[in-house]
Specification:
The protein has a single domain, classed as OB fold (Dihydrolipoamide Acetyltransferase, E2P), CATH 2.40.50.120. It is of the alpha+beta class. The strands form two sheets. Strands 1, 2, 3, 6, 7, 8 and 9 form a seven-stranded antiparallel β-sheet that branches. The chain has a two-stranded antiparallel ribbon with strand order 4-5.
Length: 164
Amino acid sequence: MKRNILIGVVVSCFMLFASQNTSACTCPTVGGKPTRLQYQNYITSRYNRAAVVFSGEILSLGKFFVVFKVNKIWKGKMTDKIELSIGTGIVKGDLPVVMYSSSSCDYNFMGKETKFLVFARRTKYGDLQTFACSLTRRMSKAKQIREVLKRMENFNDIKIVNHK
């Protein structure tokens, strides 16, 4: 009997610690390697869904918010600084207070690189948010996306604003 209880405790502890390393967020993907046209269409559809698309540098990073100095705007109206939510907003009761929590779908801005290409959407609470499945990327990893945005510029599909 004691042996069964001990085995149960060991298995429970293993499951508890192993489950902390798993991710519940899964992003939709296209099977196989997409063609150039498929990739361009994918980026265009993500661009159309976003409220804002810009490049910028992190000025400050908190647990649930990040503030950027905006360098270039592909979509949306904003000043030279913008704050994004990187947590999940939850309204508690009838209070006009939005509480934030984190999830596995939040974009992780941690690391040494501070320059990003950001695709963000508006939440139902009105703030801007980016998430792991968006096209938000570190600038060093966003070359192909920037090339598609450049082609869109060349076809006058988008108007660019530069902040210096």
